[in-house]
Amino acid sequence: MSILTDTIRKQFKEGDDIRDEGLTTPDTVQRFDNILYGDDPEWNTMDLYIPKEEKEKLPIIISFHGGGWVYGDKERYQYYCMSLAERGFAVINFTYRLAPEFKHPAPLEDMNQVAHWIMNHAKDYFLDTEHIYGVGDSAGAHLLVLYASILTNKEYASTYDFKVPEGFQFNALALNCG
Asked: Is there a contact between 133 and 63 (Cβ–Cβ < 8 Å)?
C-alpha cells in the first residue's frame, strides 16, 4: 500500500469519526447487519435497513459508498442510509473491495453480487424489485454509473465476465460528486 492511500484512509476516517460521533440507530429503523452477499466475509457484507412495523413491499435504495476507490465501508454510511430508511425505503448499504488491494472491476463484481442477492431474497424482506434506486457518493457515484451502464448497454456489458441478474434494473440514480 502507498503512503498516499494510508494518508487518505487515516484522514477520511478521522473526519468520518467526528461526523458520526454520538449518532445511534433511530428507534424507527430495523437493522439486519452483516449479511453475507458474496463469498468473502471481510469484503462482501451488507446491512439492510427498513422502517419498523412495515409489512408492505418497500422500494429499494442501494447505497454505493464513496472514498476515492481506496477508502470506506458500510459503517461509514450507516447513519445516512438509516435516514433514507426512515422515509419509507428498504436501504442496502454494502462494503465492496477497495483499491489498491483489489483491481477494477472488483467493486462492480461486488455490486453485481448485491443485485443477485436482492433478486434472490426480495420476498424474505418485503423488497419491491420493481422499484430499485441507486445512490452513489464520489467514487461510489462513478461506480454506480458504470454498473448502470452495464445494465443498459449490452455491448459495454459484454466487456465484463459477470452477468447481471434477470429483471434487475434501476428506476433512477442519485449521484453526488461522481
From this structure: no
